[in-house]
Amino acid sequence: AETAAAVKAATEKAKAVGTAAAQKAAAEQAKPAAEKAFAEKTAAERAKAAAEQARATTEKAAAEQAKIAAEKAAAQMVNAAGEKAGAEQAKASARKAATEEAKAAAEKAAAEQAKATAEKTAAEQAKVTAEKAA
Fold it and tell me: Please, what is the average pLDDT of the chain?
C-alpha cells in the first residue's frame, strides 16, 4: 500500500511538473503573439493621435484662411464704399460749382442788361430834354 501511495505521489508530482512545463511552453508560444498585438495597438493609437492632430491643424488652417478671406472682403467693401462716397462728394461739389457759376452768370447778365437799359433810358431822356430845350 505504501508503494502504491509512493507511486501515486510520484505520478502526481510528475503530472504537476509536466503541467508546469506545458504551461511554460504555452506562455513562450503566446508571448510573440501578445507582443505583436501590443505593438499593433500602440501603432493604431499613434496613427489615431496623428490623425487627430492633422484634423486639428487642418481645421485651424481653414479657420485662419476663412478669417483672412473675410478680412479681405471687408477691406474691399470699405474701399468700395469709400470710393463711392468720394465719387458722390465729387459729383455734389461739381453740381454745386456749376450751380454757383450759373447763378453768377445769370446775375452778371441781369446786371449788364439793367445797365444797358438804364443807359438807353438815360440817353433817350437826355435826347428828349435836349430837343425840348432846342
Answer: 90
